[in-house]
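User: If you would, consider this record:
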Amino acid sequence: MVPYLTTALTGPLLELEKRLLDAQPMIEHWFRQQWKGQSAPFYTSVDIRNAGFKLAPVDTNLFPGGFNNLNPAFMSLSIHAAMGAVEKICPYAQRLLLIPESHTRNTFYLQNVAVLAHILRQTGLIVRIGTLIPEITEPTTLELPAGGRLTLEPLVRKGNRIGLEGFDPCAVLLNNDLSAGVPDILKGIEQNIMPPLHAGWATRRKSRHFAAYQHVADEFAQLIGIDPWLIDPYFNHCGKIDFQARQGEDCLAEKVGDMLEKIRVKYAEYGIDQPPFVIVKADAGTYGMGIMTVKSPDDVRELNRKQRNKMAVGKEGVEVSEVLIQEGVYTFESINGAVAEPVVYMLEHFVVGGFYRVHTGRGSDENLNSPGMHFVPLAFDDTCVMPDRSANPDASPNRFYAYGVIARLAMLAASIELDEMLHEIENTAAA
């Protein structure tokens, strides 16, 4: 079952989808040209919101943790894309070390690790899984909810190489977003690490990503002749904020007010009869933490103690001192009455599928990446890469193609973002 829009405000989005379909040859040529000068991240997932009048990315993850939610019918897409990614980054690779997140109690996440390892093994690689968990001092086998097992092994460092006991890998794949910082054991490694260490949330910032996305969206919008706002959420940044000490609140409230006014102007232009809202979230990776929906500057000034405490701490207990102020994009897609948003997965620069994040307890203007969410249906029933130009713009393959285009724009922005960060790191080291 494919969820369809449940709003009457379908006109503009149908027009956007039609533009994407009509311009498909030009779009694919444009993407090919972009990838001549850019290297795609090893893998990417993009959260997309479909408002009926706007289709835009709201988060781009460079350490995706939901491969178990993809449609198994399209597994071959993932395997072929992974082959290309490995060949490009480390063409002589035989052995690969996969390093996941350090939470063993989340069995659904571990199922993701198992599927990811399976994809990589199907490319012909020998894959073993190393863990940063200090309590694991010997190979430890865990039972998985869908059946099967996963063996975690303690990492071993010898000189500038990292591996496992009796296992010296050619390359290292991180499925850990390094929210708590880069551990010493991973610093100064001579093997290829994918994604690079600076892609982790210890250094990466969402505001930087969306600045890169803004440039990409502007160029793309000019290419197909649309208003870039239809695919790009407004954003701003507020640093040096302390929710618990109530420092920086006025700065945040002022910027929220300015953004709400900008959104009102656009809503009036497009005849959108919905109240504008803003999402305030940690500028470094959230894992669904440190996020709130704001509809007035007063919402920021009137946070109670519980709300301030919730906003003050992100993943791994890291203090939140910088926040992204992002235009709220409604989601008017639903499954069985529950609010849903698409998540698109890519390996290298190829779309390999996706799924819907669903939450029965949240509204169309709220963050769905929170406790209580589930994934039903688990997967898209289409690949996102095979539009049907003879069908209506909102036909299933065409809507999925539109998702894929927006996701690839976000991935391209992430590639540019990482290159800029690397350039800065190299300049700092040389100074």
Notes: The first helix runs from residue 11 to 22. DSSP finds nine helices and 17 strands in the chain. The chain has three domains: 1-62+204-233+329-431, 75-202, 238-327.
